[in-house]
Design a protein that fits this description.
The complex is a heterodimer of chains A (520) and B (146).
Chain A (H helix, E strand, L loop, with lengths): L2 E4 L4 H5 L2 H14 L4 E4 L13 E5 L2 E5 L7 H6 L11 E4 L4 H4 L17 H6 L4 H7 L3 H11 L11 H9 L7 E6 L8 H8 L1 H15 L3 E6 L4 H16 L15 E6 L9 H8 L23 E5 H13 L1 H5 L2 E2 L2 E2 L1 E8 L5 E6 L4 H8 L9 E6 L6 E3 L9 H6 L8 E6 L4 H15 L5 H20 L8 H13 L3 H5 L1 H10 L11 H4 L1
Parallel strand pairs in A: 1-2, 6-7, 6-9, 7-8, 12-16
Antiparallel strand pairs in A: 1-3, 3-4, 4-5, 10-11, 12-13, 14-15, 14-16
Chain B lengths: L13 H12 L6 H8 L4 H10 L11 E6 L2 H4 L3 H12 L12 E6 L11 E3 L2 E3 L4 H10 L4
Parallel strand pairs in B: 1-2
Antiparallel strand pairs in B: 1-3, 3-4
Helix pairs in contact in B: 2-3
The chains are: A alpha/beta (520), B alpha+beta (146).
């Protein structure tokens, strides 16, 4: 049998040369007359090692990384097809501590096989959740999700079961499942990884959601910045239909679910659920006032579940293993796991699925290895561009929705962007306002006008900060107005990064340094 | 794409139609507006409004190549500001502009989802990670432009 060599097709791995490495391996093997089968798997999420190439030796996966095309002849010389020693040798893939320490539930299959191979999916435990769901009543599926404690992974943390129950109880007639795959937050890539690396898992989660609430049609709203995910999902949907994961006769049950892919068009605000619905309807992505809730009057005015990719991607595991098993992970009201994304200035960037309750310090240092630059970490932004900056003094904060909220921060989608001590926090605050001004949908005044005024105020503070006698009264007042008066999180949470920067790093703004009492 | 259903208004196919048109023509030309309005049962103002709302859609032809430099936080933490400045200086244009010879359209992107390999750029729909000024120059040179 030919030796199997795994080279990720994930766009992150491709971005650092996986395609060229793949060609180099095929060419070198041919040149030496060696028979290898190259499998294009998903990424394990250990991005600092990408391109991470794995060789199957006696049933074990041996990892080498990061591999450059020029390394390939040397790897063959070192006998890597037999697991030979080499400077890039990382040992058995799943024994690499970064991966071994994780609790991979939603990402259990990630990187193991070919994302489009339905056999790989089935062998990895795929379809078990749907098979169980097909034996349950809709109310019992919702009860299982309720027992799991699953909350919306897109950022808001709303209990998934409550949303589903509302749609289930919204009477008969047409209903929709909408997957929010408009992953626009900087520092987040778990949605992309799941779609590129385990697309059937997301599809299965959407089908189960449909069975739970009585919806036979789904929309997957994918941002246009993810062309590779689009290609994989297009193919996955065709194969899923052929295999009975979609269509008129789900796994022979006679029940039906159909899925439509829909491409976004570069508007960040369309990650807000009502804006996203407007976008599918062919309109400007203007945020809708709530109520009515999308659960009752959503897409085309009909009852609609809108869930994030990771929320839906967690559903198959929960159905297969039971809500109680999922609920056993985590802390307080934050149950289960979250695929955290370590990004920005860290040595070991990547995806870390861990139970809630893990501290920032563990993620930043035990996993992340500190700053890539070798300098001290000064700030981390958690939860995307609308998330607060957390100073080094608060790195022991546990990742828990309520603990973060109490500290004036948000867990969001689990994206963690680290900055070293060269960061200028006043510029970051200005960027937050600038981003809001660029991306505001324009419907409400606090966001549309407030963000522009915020940029002006911060420009004035930046210009005058060397005098150290700036006044932040007006900026704080503006932030309060945006917090309280905005229609959605775009304007309502932009003050989080601005105020946290102001509170924790006043010296960057030409203000008096922070007093001791605030540090406590 | 939407399913064939009477519950779905014609307007719901407007975004897919704009994407298709732009993929073919590179932009949404003036003469297409009235036709789009008729086909999707909306006013011309609504078509213009939709095109204007979404960053992806453009009313003028783009350059032969499209370079998007990620300027979001994770890439900023790894030197995106310097990379963006280099791209602008090298091409002699600002973000949102197309070089005089029509070679390259330069855009700021706000997250390409490649935050674990920052800083990132996207060139003609392909994402590249851990990019510095030298690598960016090499990428542009590979395509024979700029």
């Amino acid at each position: 049998m030919n030796v199997r060599v795994f080279v990720p097709r994930d766009s992150g791995a491709a971005s650092v040369g996986a395609e060229r490495v793949c060609r180099a391996i095929e060419n070198e093997a041919a040149r030496r007359g060696l028979a290898v089968d190259v499998v294009r798997n998903g990424s394990r999420g250990l991005y600092w090692l990408e391109p991470l190439v794995e060789v199957e030796v006696a049933g074990q996966r041996i990892a080498y990384g990061p591999v450059a095309p020029g390394d390939v002849p040397g790897l063959f010389d070192a006998g890597w097809l037999d697991g030979g020693a080499h400077g890039l040798f990382q040992g058995q893939s799943e024994e690499i501590p970064y991966l071994k320490k994780q609790t991979r539930l939603s990402f259990a299959r990630m990187g193991r096989g070919d994302p489009l191979s339905f056999d790989d999916y089935r062998a990895g435990g795929g379809l078990e959740g749907l098979q169980r769901a097909l034996q349950l009543s809709p109310a019992d599926i919702v009860a299982e999700i309720d027992a799991s404690g699953l909350r919306g992974r897109g950022g808001a943390g709303f209990p998934t079961a409550i949303k589903w129950r509302t749609v289930l109880n919204a009477g008969g007639g047409q209903k929709y499942i909408v997957c929010n795959a408009d992953e626009g937050d900087s520092g987040t890539f778990s949605d992309r990884m799941l779609m590129e690396g385990d697309p059937y898992c997301l599809i299965e989660g959407m089908v189960i959601a449909g069975l739970a609430v009585g919806a036979d049609t789904g929309y997957l709203y994918l941002r246009s910045e993810y062309p590779d995910a689009w290609d994989i999902l297009e193919n996955a949907i065709v194969i899923a239909r052929r295999e009975g994961l979609l269509g008129d006769d789900l796994l022979g049950s006679g029940k039906r679910f159909e899925l439509n892919l829909f491409k976004g068009a570069g508007a960040y605000v369309c990650g807000e659920e009502t804006s996203l619905l407007e976008s599918i309807e062919g309109k400007r992505g203007l945020v809708r006032a709530k109520p009515p809730l999308p659960a009752l009057q959503g897409l085309f005015g009909l009852p609609t579940v809108v869930n994030n990719v990771i929320t839906l991607g967690s559903v198959p595991w929960i159905l297969a293993h039971g809500g109680t098993a999922y609920q056993a992970h985590g802390v307080n009201r934050s149950r289960g796991t979250l695929p955290f994304q370590l990004a920005g200035n860290l040595r070991y960037t990547g995806l870390v699925e861990a139970p809630f309750g893990v501290t920032l310090r563990e993620l930043l240092y035990d996993y992340g290895g500190g700053a890539a630059s070798g300098r001290p970490l000064r700030a981390v932004q958690v939860g995307g561009p609308l998330g607060a900056f957390v100073p080094a003094a608060d790195f022991d904060l546990p990742l828990d929705y309520e603990a973060f909220a109490a500290a004036g921060a948000s867990v969001g989608h689990g994206g963690i962007v680290a900055f070293d001590d060269t960061v200028d926090m006043a510029k970051m605050a200005r960027y937050a306002m600038h981003f809001c001004a660029v991306e505001s949908c324009g419907k409400c005044t606090p966001c549309r006008v407030g963000s522009v005024r915020g940029v002006e105020l911060l420009d004035a503070m930046l210009a005058a900060r060397s005098g150290r006698n700036n006044d932040d009264t007006l900026l704080r007042d503006l932030c309060q107005t945006m917090l309280e008066g905005s229609l959605c999180a775009m304007g309502g949470m932009t003050p989080y990064p601005v105020l946290s920067a102001l509170n924790h790093y006043p010296e960057d703004f030409g203000l008096a340094p922070k007093r001791e009492e605030k540090a406590a | 794409m939407h399913p064939q259903s009477s519950a779905v208004p014609a307007q719901a196919d407007l975004l897919p139609a704009l994407h298709r048109m732009q993929a073919q023509l590179g932009h949404i030309p003036e003469h297409a507006i009235a036709e789009l309005a008729r086909t999707y049962n909306v006013s011309r103002a609504e078509v213009e409004g939709v095109i204007g709302f979404y960053h992806d859609f453009r009313r003028t032809p783009p350059g032969r190549r499209r370079l998007q430099v990620c300027c979001a936080e994770s890439c900023q933490a790894m030197g995106a500001d310097a990379l963006a400045a280099h791209a602008q200086a090298r091409l002699g244009i600002a973000m949102g502009e197309t070089s005089a010879d029509g070679g390259v359209t330069l855009e700021a992107a706000y997250c390409l989802g490649n935050c674990a390999c920052s800083p990132a750029v996207m060139l003609d729909g392909r994402v590249h990670g851990r990019v510095d000024a030298g690598r960016l120059d090499a990428l542009l040179a590979e395509g024979g432009e700029a």
